[in-house]
Write a structure and sequence with these properties.
Double Stranded RNA Binding Domain; two-stranded antiparallel sheet; 2 helices
């Protein structure tokens, strides 16, 4: 990892997470009009999934998050972690533990 890349991530409000850390990511579930849920990991933008039930969506977003972490590791990139406070009156927000 190039030091300047780490510095740039830090300047943008990202935290670099060391490997072996267990973090709880914030999953935001939005009920779709046609049924089911769309869910995204607020701490790692771009990680999105869906499911017919909250339980299924939880399993799917956890898998998507773990795959994203694995990809960062495989590429030798630091795992960026955005500290966020997600507020949504029509959403379900869950904290889900994941081994980073």
């Amino acid at each position: 990892m190039i030091t300047s890349e780490k510095q740039q991530l830090n300047q943008q409000g990202w935290v670099i997470i060391p490997e072996g850390t267990i973090k709880r990511f914030r999953a935001v579930f939005v009920h779709d009009e046609d049924g089911g849920y769309t869910v995204f990991a607020a701490n790692l933008p771009g990680v999105v999934s869906e499911g017919e039930t909250v339980s299924e969506a939880t399993a799917n977003i956890t898998e998507a998050f773990e795959l994203a972490i694995e990809t960062y590791k495989d590429l030798g990139r630091p795992i960026p972690w955005k500290k966020v406070q997600s507020e949504c009156k029509a959403c379900i927000i869950k904290l889900i533990p994941v081994n980073v």
